Amino acid sequence: PKFVYAFSEGNKDLKDLLGGKGANLAEMTNLGLPVPPGFTITTEACRRFLSGGAVPGGLWEEVEDHLRAMEEKMGKRLGAARDPLLVSVRSGAKFSMPGMMETVLNVGLNDRSVHGLAEEAGDERFAWDSYRRLIQMFGRTVLGIGGDRFEEAIEEAKRHKGVSSDLGLTAADFHHLVEVFKGIVKDETGEDFPYDPRRQLRMAVEAVFDSWNAPRAIVYRRQERIPADLGTAVNVVAMVFGNLGMDSGTGVAFTRDPGSGRRGVYGDYLQNAQGEDVVAGIRNTIALQELQTIDPASYRELLAIMRTLEDHYRDLCDIEFTIERGRLWMLQTRVGKRTAEAAFRIATELADQGLIDMDEAVRRVSGDQLAQLMFPRFAAHDDMRPITRGMNASPGAAVGRAVFGSERAEELAGRGEDVILVRRETTPDDLAGMIAARGVLTSRGGKTSHAAVVARGMGKTCVCGAEELDVDVKERRFTAPGGVVVEEGDVISIDGTTGEVYRGEVSVVDSPVVRYFEGTGDLGDDLIQAVHRIMTHADERRRLGVRANADTPEDAGRARRFGAEGIGLCRTEHMFLGERRRLVEDLILAVSGEERQAALDALEPLQRSDFAGIFAAMDGLPVTVRLIDPPLHEFLPDITALSVQVALAGKDASDRDRRLLAAVRRLHEQNPMLGLRGVRLGLVIPGLFAMQVRAIAEAAAERRAAGGDPRAEIMIPLVGAVQELEQVRDEAARILTETGVEAAIGTMIEVPRAALTAGRIAEAARFFSFGTNDLTQMTWGFSRDDVEGAFFSRYLELGVFGVSPFESIDREGVGRLMSIAVAEGRATRPDLKIGICGEHGGDPESVRFCHEIGLDYVSCSPFRVPVARLEAARGAL
Ligand code: ADP
Ligand code: MG
Ligand code: MG
């Protein structure tokens, strides 16, 4: 293959082959912008070098051809004794990896060509400065010498001279530094600095190839999920010089503000400097606007080029440029990174300018960015330092009193206090406390730990895995580094966006975007306008419906304001917790039919009023109620605690406690998640599901009588066989007929067997809803609550999966089961309605997958509803 492309041969769409930098240098060249001549060695050459341990055959010949063409064009020869051509050798991968890999400037200088450069430029100081930079960069990058020795030598030279900036060093000082640097090279490598210009070039190219596998590049790629096998391209570019005096300089700029997205002139400039100096911070940069007075002509030209680039790329661009004695040169451009806020503003503004249409505007923003805009935030807090830092598990800002258990959390929250639940890790037992708390802080577990997953689902701020904290739940306190002790009741602040933990109160402000969704936002704000327009267009474009998972009238109301078109999952479990737990215990203890009926009779009116409130909040929209589905053990007292209690009480133990203990022993399960739950519970405890169906039917009937429009759907959990469903359906249908209420009966698809027999199951179900939490757990055969600490991080490291399958649907496995169920279910019943109600319903990637396989709707937590609306549109476009 062809390994080398002149800039004039490439274009911006060749990023795979030429890397981002090379493709964009080519694009600018072809746009007629002032780019120094140069060429790009392909990523393919890099991949071959890395796998074969040597550059591929023919590469150096191709490089030589392009170099010669460049020399001819410029009338200069690389590293010649008179008027030498110098080049930079620059890395540039497909995805930008800022500062991760290497670049060497001024290649071609040696003891002879340095004189030629000085003569041509009429500037001795410049030439020796450029030479010492080459040895320094080459030494570090190519020869692997630690940068400190060079830095120290420069500091020493400045000290000796009594100056504070490199501007105070003369030609003689730099000449001296070159000698010192050469000594360092010899000392560190045992060899002389390579004087042959072509050898310098080849060594630099190989070093850039190698930098693909530098440890920090590997870490960065893992973090940013950039594939490890892409390799980098290498750009060889004729040098232009920003260090030729005060009429020269170098800078970076954005075509608009990457923080806010607003138009204007944003950038930094440094006079008499080269490349790295701007970012290295060796001198203070000046604002780009000041260039207007320093060099008005170049400034005007730069602004015009920035407009050209933005119009051409139809997006925000960032650029690197250099001015050599009043002549402007473009050295890099790319579509620039931006904040979430800027993304929304830029997308709508470009649409207003007619550069993109609204479909493209919707593509230009993401659900993750919208989610970021929805989290409450800490106001500026310069005066406070974090006491520790954990993982940023669920964004937002939360302030409250530290509490160490659910009961205390509920108690204080009940009194109107804000609390932060602090635990070593959380379990389903902590759910009530998590609901009551403003935020959750744990010292163990990663981003897929129970605390993190549940908090994200609830849109609740969470910092997890803050390992420096010693959490003592018994003593109700934690200790942070430096001996900081936080006792129960002390106020702490946690930032789920950064993972920072503060002692004391940092003030929090509400997100204006949430106020907008709530209907109380300021429509005059241009950010809100941008969000509004994009969401409106997204709703027009999406095919996929969006519902919410909501168990209370409050959540249902919020979900509706956020745009939910119904409830896809109304869980009934929590309706049995708290004070009602005793009634559930009675149900489990019941020996006779009468006892059981009495317990059910006590529960029914409570359930009815639960449903009435939800139907009211979702009037006119579907509400899918899932019949009870908890692992039974969650309702029963802890077996150890109860055993101890009964043993200690001895003869005095109450009859109820003894019976309870017997029941707990009888019902104890080794694998509760695979045990007596879901439809199995309904089939084993007579009357339980019937009671729930009656409560639903009666609540709906009441609502209708009152003039409302309730649309109940009844959903059976954990079905694996059509026979299970038939049993429950027949009983439920009878009750519905009795009450004269119409409600569709359907099933969760969350057991692999259900997906595989979906054609049969659809005979008894009017709708399916994928419970992808359980479906993932059962498909992989690992327990969501136990995998985190055990092996997930290792699996991520090994690349078994790139992202936890609990975060984003595993398309290959779980997704395949879903596709099968969709196809076979619809084959049986063409009008089968199909949705998803697992955690994944609010995950951007998974929402797009659901669109692809033709689901009717996704259902997610109220807070994620706008995210799902947006991603549903992005999937459809
Ligand atoms: P990075 O990817 O880290 O930004 P670059 O390859 O862009 O690395 O180079 C680093 C710096 O060197 C940039 O500021 C760039 O402007 C400057 N530079 C690179 N090539 C040249 C050149 N041919 N002439 C002048 N400056 C250059
Ligand atoms: Mg750069
Ligand atoms: Mg389930």
From TrEMBL:
Official protein name in the record: Pyruvate, phosphate dikinase
The protein's Enzyme Commission number: 2.7.9.1
NCBIfam families given in the database record: PRK05878.1, pyru_phos_dikin
Domain (PEP-utilising enzyme C-terminal) ranges: 530-874
Keywords linked to the UniProt accession: ATP-binding, Kinase, Magnesium, Metal-binding, Nucleotide-binding, Pyruvate, Transferase
Top EC class, one word: transferase
Active site: H450, C837
Record-annotated Pyruvate phosphate dikinase AMP/ATP-binding domain positions: 16-52, 61-284, 291-347
Binding site for substrate: R571, R626, E750, G771, T772, N773, D774
InterPro entries: ATP_grasp_subdomain_1, PEP-util_enz_mobile_dom, PEP_util_AS, PEP_util_C, Phosphohistidine_dom_sf, PPDK_AMP/ATP-bd, Pyruvate_phosphate_dikinase, Pyrv/PenolPyrv_kinase-like_dom
One annotated GO molecular function: pyruvate, phosphate dikinase activity
Pfam family, one: PPDK_N
Biological source species: Sphaerisporangium melleum
Family listed: Belongs to the PEP-utilizing enzyme family.
Binding residues annotated for Mg(2+), in chain numbering: E750, D774
PROSITE patterns assigned: PEP_ENZYMES_PHOS_SITE
Keyword Disulfide bond part of the UniProt annotation: no
Record-annotated PEP-utilising enzyme mobile domain positions: 417-499
Highest taxon of the lineage: Bacteria
Necessary cofactors: Mg(2+)
Catalytic activity: pyruvate + phosphate + ATP = phosphoenolpyruvate + AMP + diphosphate + H(+)
